[in-house]
Amino acid sequence: MTRAKQDRLLGLLLRDGGWVTAATLADQLGVTARSVRSYVTSVNGRVSGGQAVESGPQGYRAGVEAGAALQTSPGDGGSPRDRLHTLVTRLLDAPDGLDVYAVADEMFVSAATVESDLARVRSLLGGTELILDRQGAQVRLRGTEMAQRRLLSRLVHDEMDAGAYDTAALRRALGEQSAVLPSLAPFKAALVAQLVDFGYYVNEYGMSDVLTHVAIAADRVARQRGLDAEGLPEPVAAQLRVANAIETLAREHLGVDLGPADSRHLASVVLTRVVAPGIADETRAPLDPEVEGAVREAVGAAASEFLVEIHDEDFVLRLALHVQNLRLRARDKAWSRNPLTRSLKSTYPMIFEVAVFIASELSQRLNIPLHDDEIAYIAMHVGGQLERSRRSDERLTATIICPGYYELHELLRSSVARSLGQSIEVVRVETRVDPDWADIDTDLVLTTIDAPPGAPVQPERVVRIQPFLTPADVDRIQVVAVRARRTRRLAKLRIELESYFRPDAFVHGIDPTLGEEGTIRLLGGLLRDAGVIDDAYLERAVAREGMSSTAFTDALAVPHAIGMTAAHTAIAVGIADPSIPWGDARVQVVALVAFSENDRAAFQTVFEQFVEVFNERESAQRIVRRATSLPSFLDELVAVIDG
């Protein structure tokens, strides 16, 4: 039983918010239902009263103390994770090294256990430029101070759930005695206020990165392990201004005198992670022509490939400024975490896919690797631009039925427009007490009178309201509108999907040991044998998966290649029971999608709304349980779509 699996269970329950069956949790964790029960018992043992996870006939859900349990670490420090933190901290504080047998005695474990923990330390060192040097029983870390801080940062980030700020993770990495942690909150508030005064836009989503670096720097300086200022380049005006502010605030709130190297380093962290100058801000670093050119080309290619309206001058410049900072982070191997990565991917898969395409183009043009969290920031830029240019034809149409009495119907129409005008367009007003119900073909019918029994109108389209619109009326209309909008989207999806699935490209019972690449090659091989795609498309699908996991929900992965080069659009489906590890998730349905150039207009409909179906756990589980063949899969899919 591992602490990591217990924490993963808690995270799943907290994110869901409702009841989750043991079978579903077991599948998402890759364990048995019996193990889930053991995890729940252990988690409840972390808090007094045992209310971290509630149990019931419907399964499990997060209790009132779930958050506290997630932040609680074992008191004896004997878990593998706690030993790892202790060992790394001691190695960093011992420049002359540690004796393996002495450490084993002090930690009350065997030497073999310490050796196993040292192997885990080695696995953390990739990309940090640190070396674990071993001479007999003596081990030590060799590398620069910056490399050692990079290791501390990795230790903290690896424990943070989706990049969320976690003081407990910082405390474990720096040690319980670290004096700077209690003062980080007032330091952060003062820093944000100062940056706003400087005229910057502050990205709160990246603030956990900054606070992690500040805590590590302050702690290391307090231990007389500050950075060396020798050979530092002359700072630009913006860096110097932020560095001076950080130095002053660190002295005031953290009780630490940062030297010029540390203050400038932290200023660079701030300037490349959490602030954005205005496009015309003269204090920002000049925009690199190479970066601007690469962004323009990438955005233009994405606009053409996906038929989206993102080729806007201000958007290009904002994204270019972001990419310029991103390039600096890549140079220092200091990636920025994004707590919205998972939700952006599952809620806006189409936007995320455009971001992946742009990231791929930028990676080739600027020779920088891009990870999921960095792609998510690009997705936020893309989503913001698409929101600005969103067309009004996404609104639902509505008919108001309000029997005439003076200007009552006009007052009602203006109230609806004022409260719901962004999502609903009133195209017709009926003032008769006996309207022709059969002739009303709008998405919604907002009526102040009841429809007569047997009226030829779908009840789910009708919302009974008062002549003078009340807040309760607005709430009911919004609920029905959401349902109607979803029904309209999924009706289109049903028509599209029925023409894309192939009877010879359906696999039930995929071997979980195949993994991501093996499953992609299995399903892709079926489409290749049918003449839909070639080997090049299959290789690009594998490469696309390597850029960013296509597990868009907890149940579904949609692997595909960048570029719509299939002979015609087709979908190969695989069902896995038990689930397949996919990225940092586990999935039970894999839909390999091959798109052709002629069907690019269908890309958004099929891609985004197919993901939407599987974003609902009950729907996904129903399909997995009953879909043993393509006909049964389509039957269940259509049943879910039809509600």
Automatic annotation (TrEMBL):
It holds the Pfam family PRD. The keyword Repeat applies. Residues 499-643 form the PTS EIIA type-2 domain. GO terms for biological process: regulation of DNA-templated transcription. InterPro entries: BglG_antiterminators (IPR050661), PRD (IPR011608), PRD_sf (IPR036634), PTrfase/Anion_transptr (IPR016152), PTS_EIIA_type-2_dom (IPR002178), WH-like_DNA-bd_sf (IPR036388). Keywords: Repeat. PANTHER family: CRYPTIC BETA-GLUCOSIDE BGL OPERON ANTITERMINATOR, TRANSCRIPTIONAL REGULATOR MANR. This is PRD domain-containing protein. It comes from Microbacterium ginsengisoli. The lineage of its organism: Bacteria, Bacillati, Actinomycetota, Actinomycetes, Micrococcales. The gene is licR.
